[in-house]
Amino acid sequence: MATVVIVGDVGGCADRLAAVLPALAEDPEITVIQAGDLVDRGPDSPGVLKLVAERLREAPGRWIQLIGNHEAPYAGIGEPFWPEPLDEADAARLRDWWLRDRMRVAAAVRTAQGEELLVTHAGLTVRAWRELGEPVTAGTTAELLNTRPEALLADLGGPLWAEAGTDLYHGWLTETVFPPFGQVHGHDSIVDFGTRRWRCGDRLRHRTTVDWAARHTTTVIKRMPFIGVDPRHGRDGAPEWSPLYLRDATVLV
């Protein structure tokens, strides 16, 4: 089995992505899933897109690109919302990736322990899961999401927009149904990594462990892990962070 590496939100911080790419590119046993939000906020969105374009060209089978809410308007999902739009060449690049299926909504991974994890930008809420027909595996769920259900993708509580604490975790915690699989997501975090303050209540905090150096959180809800990988780079980039490594894992979808 190979290693699956999940890279959280990049947010226009090309230097932060460039710092981790050599190690990811040189190992042929690594497959990367990037969880969306490549662009906006940071200083060099064009540089980020150039780096990803190189990986998609040189090793297309080893780089899985997911769509985030910041890419969504360029794919025709919802209205533009960021005050500093991309130039036409970069906007066209994102549209091309979407139209050619080089950017997708979801991926699914089987870990070394045999658990399935769904990977999306913002996570799949219990309400969105029900709208998909309550699929029982991460693989089936990823396949359904990759049919691009338009209303669900545009929904502010959907897999491109859901807030981690209020929409995603709270819903699965308070509903009577058990999560059928674990999840990995970017987009939002229940902690502020810079100040080390919590952005959620005690019910979630007591279920969560934090890797402060890597900028990951793991919240266990009814025995299933919900792993947040958004490093919250902001405008200048996090001083320290790391992708999520899943060793001896398999990409299912």
TrEMBL record:
Leader peptide range in chain numbering: none
GO MF entries: phosphatase activity
| Superkingdom, natural source | Bacteria
Q: Name one Pfam family in it.
A: Metallophos
Q: Which Gene Ontology CC terms are recorded?
A: cytoplasm
Residue span, Calcineurin-like phosphoesterase domain: 3-141
Alphabetized Gene3D superfamilies for the sequence: 3.60.21.10
Q: Which PANTHER family match?
A: METALLOPHOSPHOESTERASE (PTHR42850), ZINC-DEPENDENT ENDOPOLYPHOSPHATASE (PTHR42850:SF4)
Protein name (record): Calcineurin-like phosphoesterase domain-containing protein
Species of the source:
Catenuloplanes atrovinosus
